[in-house]
Amino acid sequence: MIESLQDSLSQAPSDQVIEFSDNTFVVDAALIGELLHIPATRVTILMREGGITSVCERGTGENEGEFRLTFFYRSRRARLITDLAGRLLRRSAIDFGDRANPAALHRATG
Q1: pTM here?
Q2: Cβ atoms of 77 and 96 closer than 8 Å
Q3: Sheet holding 3-4: strands in order across?
């Protein structure tokens, strides 16, 4: 079953900011955990172990000046859209369910 959480998560709180440091993004583990349905305390551990993977894409054309950060964990995909200042513009998550091919989920899509 595909369960989309986009409706409840699409409006990002205006006070959430993604930090840029040394050409990397710093995202609060609580936000990633919320979107992936895991405790924030597990996020760093799972990232180090390769259980959570991520992709960063720079917007072009009509999305110029934005970044899309995508995080994958099991059958879930979480996306964060931020502007150049790191302000969180949109966020979404989707669970592809038991029938999902996890390897196929971990690819960047247009």
Answers
A1: 0.77
A2: yes
A3: 3-4, 88-95, 76-83, 66-73, 52-58
Hey, what domains does the chain have and what are their CATH numbers?
3-105 (3.30.505)
**Which has more confidence, 40 or 20?**
40
Q: Residue 10 corresponds to which tokens in the numbers above?
A: 């699409």
Backbone phi, then psi, for 10, in 5-degree steps?
-70, -25
Q: What is the pLDDT of residues 89-105, one digit of tens each?
A: 999 999 988 765 555 55
H-run or E-run covering 69: strand 66-73
> Which tokens hold the place of 7?
């409706």
The DSSP secondary structure of 7-69, one letter per residue, reads HHHSS--TT-B-EEETTEEE--HHHHHHHHTS-HHHHHHHHHHTSEEEEEEE--GGGTTEEEE
The string of pLDDT tens digits covering residues 29-48 is 999 999 999 999 999 999 99
By C-alpha distance, which of 13, 24, 5, 27 is closest to 89?
13
Q: How many helices (H) and strands (E) does the chain have?
A: 4, 7
